[in-house]
Amino acid sequence: MSSTVPSAVKRPGRSQRPRRPRGRRPGGRGWVAPVLLILPTVIVIGVFVYGLIGSNIHTSLQDRHNIGPSQGFAGLDNYRDLFTDDDFIYSLRNLLLYTATFLVGTLSLGFLWAWLLERKARGESLFRAIYLFPMAVSFVASGVVWRWLLNNAEGDRASGLNRLFETLHLDFLQNPWWTNERWGILAIAVPAIWQLSGYVMALFLAGFRGIPEELREAARIDGASEWQLYRHVIFPQLSPVALSAIIIIGHMSLKVFDLIMAIAGQTNYTTQVPATQMWVEFTRGDYARSAAIGTVLLLIVAILIVPYLVSTYRQERRQ
Amino acid sequence: MTTTEAIPAAVASRVPGQRSRGVARTIKYVLLIGFALVVLLPAYVLFVTSFKGIGDATPTNAWKLPESWETAGWVRAWEQLGPALGRTFAMVIPASIISSVLGSMNGFVLSKWRFPGADVVFTLILFGMFIPYQAVMVPLVQLMGNLGVPSGVPSLIVLHVVYGLPITTLIFRNYYAGVPVELVEAARVDGAGMLRTYASIILPISAPAFVVVLMWQFTSAWNDYLFALFFSTSQNGPVTIALNFLASGQLQDYSASMAGALIASVPTLIIYILLGRYFVGGLMAGSVKG
C-alpha cells in the first residue's frame, strides 16, 4: 500500500506494520490510557459528524419550512417534493455531467502530464511546479479570473476565451459557456480541471516512480514491446493510484460549491447543483428542504465512499 | 493521434534510431511547454489586469498588456481586503495548530498504543473527511448557536479544528505507522507510560509530519468558503468572503478584483513555493491511507 503512493514525508526507519502491543502485554492496563487520550476526538466527531447527520435527517423529515418550530412530522414528503421538482432533477443532472467531465478531464490530463514527466525530462521540477500551482489557490480566487475568461459575449464584444479564439481565428470555438442551458455546467468543469489536474499528475507521478526499475528491465529482457510493457506491467501497478484519484476527485466533484458561487452566483439556473440549492433554501429559511437536499448529497457521496472505506478497513484488519 | 504514438518511443530510451528519438523528444517538450502556457494563462490575465487603469480594464482588453502600469487597483483591493486578511490569519493559525496537535496524539494512539476496536474508530473518524458538509449544515448552525460560539473568527476556528481532525489523524497515523515498533516497545519495557512515550519518543521525530499537516490545514482553512459563508458576515468574515463580495459587486472594478484575487492567494502561494515538496506530501497523504 504505502509503496504505491509514497509520501514526501520521510518515514523514520523501515515501514513495517506494528505488531499489536496488546498481544504482548495482556491485561486491561494497556488500553485505558489510549482510550482516554482519543476520547475527546471520538466525542467531537460523534457529535459533529454522526450526531448532526442524524439531526439533519430528523429535520428533513419535519414540516418545517420557515424559521419557526416544526409543524409536525412530514415523513418523506420533503424528499417526494424534491424528486418531483424539475429544478432539483436538473441540478442532479448538472451534478452528474459536471462530475463526469471533471473526472475524465483531470484523470486524462493528469495521466498525460505524469507520463510526459515520468522519464527524466529537462526542467521536470519547473513543469511540475507550474502544473501544480493552481491547487494552492482557492476556488473563490480563481473564480474571479475564470468568470472573465468564460464570458459569454461573442463577436465584437467578445472577451475572455472567446476573444482569444477570435484572435487565433478559431471562431467556431466561441460559445456561451456557462450561460448555455443544456451544457453550461460543463463550462464550470473547465476551471476545475485547470485547478486539479496537477494534483492527479502528482499522484500518477508518484505511482510511476513507485514501480521498481527491475520490473521494467525484466519485461524488456523477456522481449515485451513498449505497449506490452505498459499493458502488463505499468498499468496494473498504477491502478491503485487511479482508484485513489477517482475517489478524491469524485467526492470533491460531488461537493462542488465555491466555484459555482464565484463564477455564476447562487441563483443562476444553468449552473445550479444540489449544494447551491441547499444554500439558497437555507437563506430562505426552508430548513426541512435544505436538510433534505443535504441528506441526498450525503447519500450520493456515501455510495462512492463507503465501499472504499470498508475495503480500507478490511485491508487494515488483514495485516 | 501523433502524440500518443510518439510518447512511448520517447519513454523507451533504448529504442534504436536516433532520428525518431529526436522527433519524439521534440514533441514531448512542445507538449510540456504548451500545457505549461495554458496553465499559466489565467495567471497572466490576473496579473496584467490588476495593473490596468479603470478605463483600460475592460473585458475586451483582457489579453493586452496595460497601456500604463498603474497600482490603483491594488490600493483599492487592499483597502477592501486588508481587515479580512487580518481576520483570516487570526482564524487560520490557531485552527491549524490545534487540529495538528490533536491529530498527532490521535495518530499515535491509533498506530502505536492501540486499544480494542481501534480500526473501527479509525474508519469512523475517516468518514468525517469525506462527508459533504451540506449534510450537517442546518443542525450545525443551530448547534453553534446553542453553544454560544460567536460568528466570525471564533466559530471558524472551532469548525476548522473539528472537521480537520479526520485528515490530521490520518496523516499522523500513517506517519507513525513507519516508526519501528521496537522503539515504542523499548520505552515500555523501561517503564515509560503512554504520555511519556509520546512526549519523549514520538514527538521529537514528528517534525516532518507536522510541516505537512500544518501546511495542509493552513491552506484548506485559508481557502475555505463554505463554512465562511454560513458562519460569518461580510463584516467579520475571512478573505474569501471579502473577495467574493468585492468581485461580484455592481461596480465591476476589474483591476481591483484581480488584484484582490492575487492578494488573497499570496500566503498559500508562498507556502507552496517555499515548501512545495511537503505540499505534495500533504496531497498524497490526503489521498490515501499509507
From TrEMBL, chain A:
<dbReference type="GO" id="GO:0055085">
    <property type="term" value="P:transmembrane transport"/>
</dbReference>
<dbReference type="GO" id="GO:0005886">
    <property type="term" value="C:plasma membrane"/>
</dbReference>
<feature type="transmembrane region" description="Helical">
    <location>
        <begin position="183"/>
        <end position="208"/>
    </location>
</feature>
<feature type="transmembrane region" description="Helical">
    <location>
        <begin position="95"/>
        <end position="117"/>
    </location>
</feature>
<feature type="domain" description="ABC transmembrane type-1">
    <location>
        <begin position="92"/>
        <end position="310"/>
    </location>
</feature>
<feature type="transmembrane region" description="Helical">
    <location>
        <begin position="229"/>
        <end position="249"/>
    </location>
</feature>
<feature type="transmembrane region" description="Helical">
    <location>
        <begin position="129"/>
        <end position="149"/>
    </location>
</feature>
<feature type="transmembrane region" description="Helical">
    <location>
        <begin position="30"/>
        <end position="53"/>
    </location>
</feature>
<feature type="transmembrane region" description="Helical">
    <location>
        <begin position="287"/>
        <end position="310"/>
    </location>
</feature>
<keyword id="KW-0472">Membrane</keyword>
<keyword id="KW-0813">Transport</keyword>
<dbReference type="InterPro" id="IPR035906">
    <property type="entry name" value="MetI-like_sf"/>
</dbReference>
<keyword id="KW-1003">Cell membrane</keyword>
<dbReference type="Pfam" id="PF00528">
    <property type="entry name" value="BPD_transp_1"/>
</dbReference>
<comment type="similarity">
    <text>Belongs to the binding-protein-dependent transport system permease family.</text>
</comment>
<dbReference type="InterPro" id="IPR000515">
    <property type="entry name" value="MetI-like"/>
</dbReference>
<protein>
    <submittedName>
        <fullName>Glucose/mannose transport system permease protein</fullName>
    </submittedName>
</protein>
<keyword id="KW-0812">Transmembrane</keyword>
<feature type="region of interest" description="Disordered">
    <location>
        <begin position="1"/>
        <end position="26"/>
    </location>
</feature>
<feature type="compositionally biased region" description="Basic residues">
    <location>
        <begin position="11"/>
        <end position="26"/>
    </location>
</feature>
<keyword id="KW-1133">Transmembrane helix</keyword>
<dbReference type="InterPro" id="IPR051393">
    <property type="entry name" value="ABC_transporter_permease"/>
</dbReference>
UniProtKB/TrEMBL annotation, chain B:
<feature type="transmembrane region" description="Helical">
    <location>
        <begin position="29"/>
        <end position="51"/>
    </location>
</feature>
<protein>
    <submittedName>
        <fullName>Glucose/mannose transport system permease protein</fullName>
    </submittedName>
</protein>
<dbReference type="Pfam" id="PF00528">
    <property type="entry name" value="BPD_transp_1"/>
</dbReference>
<dbReference type="InterPro" id="IPR035906">
    <property type="entry name" value="MetI-like_sf"/>
</dbReference>
<keyword id="KW-0813">Transport</keyword>
<comment type="similarity">
    <text>Belongs to the binding-protein-dependent transport system permease family.</text>
</comment>
<feature type="transmembrane region" description="Helical">
    <location>
        <begin position="156"/>
        <end position="176"/>
    </location>
</feature>
<dbReference type="GO" id="GO:0005886">
    <property type="term" value="C:plasma membrane"/>
</dbReference>
<feature type="transmembrane region" description="Helical">
    <location>
        <begin position="121"/>
        <end position="144"/>
    </location>
</feature>
<feature type="transmembrane region" description="Helical">
    <location>
        <begin position="197"/>
        <end position="219"/>
    </location>
</feature>
<feature type="transmembrane region" description="Helical">
    <location>
        <begin position="259"/>
        <end position="280"/>
    </location>
</feature>
<keyword id="KW-0472">Membrane</keyword>
<keyword id="KW-0812">Transmembrane</keyword>
<feature type="domain" description="ABC transmembrane type-1">
    <location>
        <begin position="85"/>
        <end position="275"/>
    </location>
</feature>
<feature type="transmembrane region" description="Helical">
    <location>
        <begin position="88"/>
        <end position="109"/>
    </location>
</feature>
<dbReference type="InterPro" id="IPR000515">
    <property type="entry name" value="MetI-like"/>
</dbReference>
<dbReference type="GO" id="GO:0055085">
    <property type="term" value="P:transmembrane transport"/>
</dbReference>
<feature type="transmembrane region" description="Helical">
    <location>
        <begin position="225"/>
        <end position="247"/>
    </location>
</feature>
<keyword id="KW-1133">Transmembrane helix</keyword>
